Amino acid sequence: MKQLLFLIGFLALLACPAPAAWGQGRGFETLYDHVEVVRDANGNIDELRTKNRWPFSVKEYVEFLRDTLMLIKSNPKAFTKDLKPFGKVLDEDGKEVDMPMLGEAALEELAKLDVKAVFSDPKFVKLIGEFEYELQTSIIFPYIIAKPGNSKFWFTLAGPEKLLKKFIDLAWSLIDSYPGAALAHWIFERVISYIEARQNFYQKMVLHYMEHYFDDDLGFPLDDAARIRSSIFESKIKWYKFWESQYAQDNWLTYGNEHFTGERERADRKLREHQDQFSQIVARLDWAFVATADGENRYVHHTAVETGFLDDTLSVAYDFQDPKKLLRMRVFLDLLHIGLRFVPAPGPIKSLVDKLINTRYRPQIDMEGALYGYFDSTGNAEAAERTALQSINPFLIRELMGRGMSVDVLK
User: Where residue 212 falls among pLDDT bands split at 50, 70, 90?
Assistant: First the structure.
């Protein structure tokens, strides 16, 4: 009987919109603050692209990274409290890894860096400038969200792998100091990942609107809407999965709908499995997020993304009591990533920590474009801005907030 009552309550929750207290805004119209629709000669939707198309400023990210490293140098304990959620874990060989101790060691190594010398090295500065120039001229389609008229657009599109390899090789061959080469290597990888994450963010934003509003309201005829979903999911096909690409081409009108339905069903199942994690489930915001409460405290939790490797609880997506919490944590995890390059530790341990770090925030950020769409469409501008900020993506922050990312947001 208890299971039956829960099932009835859960089904009611799926149909329950978020309460009015979460905001009232312009609804579907806010989508067009961010997305431009391009039609072909027959009036069919040929392309969705981002309306904001700021040049990708690598220097802006480099300045933020420099200022953050300077913050660590002046105050090595600045991120100590962010180590608290981590404990001891076992590596592949069953050996215990003390994450807080390793994290402190990484921060201590970062504090030793001669930041000014690294970032003012003429070879370092020149290489960053060349990378920015080639990035802006060689990646042809960075602003496209979906290409519904081309069922193999993403699969046949050459990615930035060659550009990335070229500049990583140059970093290690041209820059004399190990810290300078290691930081340049990190910057090149991180910037490329930011560009990819930016696309994911906008795609999830579009999926949120398409789930919440009628296709006709959005100006998407039924078949075009199906193709848009198909294009979004086609962009996730790995380069070697030619059989999956062929399946998408053969089933273009249903491919995206099938995948989105599957993603939504998996999210529903995760929420059912983890409903005891929450004191109160207030409302479903969309397939990927749920509003929760613990007494007077309010949160948003992921339903499609778990906290991370070795932690299968549903991840916090927004903390109304401490809106900077996720932002600080994600910046700290990036610093930990960098610091581990300078800490003497066995490769398996570093691989384990890399996996722990990556799964604690990168899948979450990709999904949070849908949460941004929810906050933006319901009129919660402050929460929308905070969601953009906690992406720690300088390109998204510049586009969605109209300003660059500053170390001041961490204080």
Answer: very high
